[in-house]
Amino acid sequence: MNRLLTSAALTLVVAIAFGAVALGAGADPAMGMWQLNLSKSTFTAGTPLKSQTRNYSESDQTITLVMKVVAADGTQSTVQTTYQLDGKDYPVSGTADYDSLTAKQIDANSARFVLKKGGKMVGTTNRKVSKDGKTLTAKTKMTTANGQTSESTMVFDKQ
Fold first, then answer.
1. Which of 37, 39, 62, 26 minimizes the C-alpha distance to 136?
2. 9-23 in b/e burial notation, b at 16+ Cβ within 10 A?
3. The pLDDT of residue 19
4. β-bridge partners, 83
5. Is 66 exposed, middle or buried (0-12, 13-18, 19+ CB in 10 A)?
6. Distance in angstroms (rounded) separating the CA atoms of residues 92 and 98
7. pLDDT band at 26 (very low <50, low <70, confident <90, very high)
8. Cα three-residue angle 68-104-142, rounded to 5 degrees
9. How far apart are CA 106 and CA 118, in angstroms?
10. Cβ distance 127 to 140 under 8 Å?
11. What is the pLDDT at residue 15?
């Protein structure tokens, strides 16, 4: 009887452990609030930002991103999208530079985004979360709505 109870308890512990690992395996490490670290960021073409916060949230396979942006001239905007990492187009609101994006998972910590305006590619963003989960780096190259080239490496700190 003791052997049966011990075996049942061990089976339950293993099942819970594997279930927890399976649930966590799909979680995007970008989830949460991120603050732009201007001292670590570079803007090699285009106008630098004054600030940006990103808030990523996840429900099932769907990710919602809300970016609060303050431009160099002090203009504030909120860019928002809800997407999946499946390579399909998803609408973006709050920016004149692009109106949709596609996203694909590269590896456990990285994703690639294609930014589109009117169905045509205008830029890309490669996003990577550090292994310790404390830093998010977004490298973006694009042509803005007014035809200017914009290139940046933005580094964000987890809040």
1. 37
2. eeeeeeeeeeeeeee
3. 36
4. 63
5. middle
6. 7
7. low
8. 55
9. 25
10. no
11. 36
- Name the residue with tokens 């970016």: 67
Rounded average pLDDT over 14-21:
36
Would you kindly state where each structural domain of the chain is located, as residue ranges?
30-158
Query: Which secondary-structure segment (H or E) carries 92?
Result: strand 86-93
Q: What pLDDT, in 10s, does the model give residues 139-159?
A: 999 999 999 999 999 999 999
Q: Which residues contact residue 128 at a Cβ distance below 8 angstroms, ignoring those fewer than 6 apart?
A: 109, 110, 136, 137
Q: Which two tokens stand for residue 66?
A: 């809300």
CATH code at 30-158: 2.40.128.20
User: 3-class SS at 98?
Assistant: coil
Nearest to 94 by CA among 112, 67, 121, 120: 67
Distance between CA atoms of 115 and 122, rounded to whole angstroms? Answer: 6
